[in-house]
Write the structure tokens for this entry.
Amino acid sequence: MAPFRVGAIPFAGYSFLFLAEDLGLLQPGGIRLQELRSNTDVLRALALGRLEAAALTLDEVLTGLHDGLPLKVVAVLDVSAGADAVMARAGLSRPEMARGKRVAVEGSAVGALMLSAFLESAGLRPDDVRLVTTPLPETAAALRSGAADLAVTAEPWVSQLEAAGAVRLFDSQEAPGRIVDVLAVRTDMLATRPDAIRGLVEAHFGALARFQSDPRSVVEQLAAHLQVDAQDVPAAFRGLELPNRAANQALLAPGGRVAEGLPELAALLHRNGLIASPVDASALIDVRWLRGGA
């Protein structure tokens, strides 16, 4: 049987998939993890049939759905509560000072949502800033090198930039519920590869449980996947909620925080011009995998 290919960028909330592989929790030969450069690349690979599943932000899943990509959300990997931020070079100490400045931001829905929320809070319009399209892992470097004056970025780069003197002007605490990372699966895989989906979800929760019970035992593996020093691993998870299985069930159940916020998130994408028409996300969530499988 062909391998079940799963794509993700090097990001803390996604790293338990790779940690699960290191710990031997993935089905040998059944699931193949692929590290990609940006979430835009991940979505493209899904659309081209080069991946069966992926770690993505929820808004990117909605964007894919709008573009005709059939996806189901089977688990929440993390919820951003300060981990995503707009950082500025020293001297730009107030949000309104962003007017006329260059902003490094990934060409993705999450980058656009964070930038939109920041500009709204600062009383600025989109044409008040100049965009420098940059993959998320390179946004901090763009700010440090002077290629940009501000960066829409995330941990661990937020903490690294703060340590180097950059200023946090805005973060996801001020936009609650907008940035949620999920495990998404192509809809056609639900019937044809249930064992792989079940195994992937179980492996994620197994690696997460190991991290939450004994983080020091896996710090080296996480550092390698996140491309940071071992001492910087705790900072990579700063501002992230990491829901276990029970918390997932609460978030994705009818009336749960993520399920309840889906219609508003879809409407927000439409209002901000990130999707051309409204999408119906009422059937996007599939919680049976949280209960052990189909």
